[in-house]
Sequence to fold (400 residues):
Amino acid sequence: MNVSALTAAELGRRLRGCGLSLRTGAFVALVRSSVPSVAEGIGALYADFPLEENSDFADFHIGLEPPRDLRRWIYPQIVFDFDGHAPFKPLPFDQAFPMFEWGLNWCVSSHSHQYLIIHAAVMEKDGFAVIMPAPPGSGKSTLCAALVNRGWRLLSDELALIRKDDGQAVPLPRPVSLKNASIEVIRNFEPTAFINRECRDTIKGTVAHMKPPRDAVLRAQETAKPGWVIFPRYRKDAATVLQARPKGGTLMAVADNAFNYSLLGTAGFHMLADMIDACDCYDFTYSNLDQAIEVFAALQPPAP
Amino acid sequence: MLTTEWVVDGDAALLLRQWGDECVVYNSVSGDTHLLNALGGVALTSLLQAPATADGLAQRVASQLGFEADEALLETIGTLLGDFERIGLIRQHPLQ
Fold:
């Protein structure tokens, strides 16, 4: 059964009560919250996601509730609870849904060391995955949102999960996080894409989330072979340029964008080096999304 | 004058990958990863095969890369060896 099978009332009742067992790719999150915006966000953006109806197990036990003290009346806030602990400071109450998204990213990146985890968007076409690591502000999520509306399958807009035993990229399809001007850019680029209500004045500015394409959710167990590592960089009015970059420097740069490369030790080095070995590596500068789509459509699979 | 030769630190368990002119070395003791240029990669690979004095290493590297083992190369190798020692890849050993 999917989230969409629940009425809004039933979804809210589950979230307030025993919790909602939500499967996102390889993980199950048991989510509890009495906050209406959390139910609204999950109902709208996770409609196609399966529920784990008959399982007592969840990878992450998450709660989002106001603090139980006077602050809830003076300055309404929200606390992210993970397994009975609050790993973050509270945020303003109206940021509850973004906090759910950020918190769930943290759960995966901090606890799932069976994977090499890279801060990167990942999309797939014809069995090959493009890994796009990049720091905030590089236009990674904007480009990712555009590509997944033009034939690329979304694996993740935030976390590349590379499996230890075979180097495959494991999907973690979730809503695509958009910030500030990129929200309007994607609304104009693909008017049929569903983007939820904007949340203003967060630490990242104004944020909103794009619903992942249904196909990406249905194929969430289908891994892909890394084929390209591309560092995107949005620059206003820049020409569209895809330029090969050396593999050694690329390994170093990807390691800088990995959450657990050092923690994995020699296994992490082998996994990353094998991935770089198998991929063609590029820098990509862009300002025009249509031209960017054309460049990505022309990518050739790496030589075996 | 005491002459020393340079050896790869026995505890260092280095892992190397070479791509064209670049070499990436992972030190499994420190957990550090280093990016080396072509000269650095050839020099370290050579030291992994057998210890060498600075002069001897310059000869080997020159032979492999088709350079002349002149003063400039010897000076560069000296700097490189100091860098390798500083980041814990190699150590000095008194020549028997």
Q: What stands out?
A: The interface with chain A takes residues 13, 15, 17, 19-24, 26, 28, 31, 33, 35-36 of chain B (CB under 8 Å). The mean pLDDT of chain B is 91. The beta strands of chain B are 4-8, 14-19, 22-27, 33-36, 90-94.
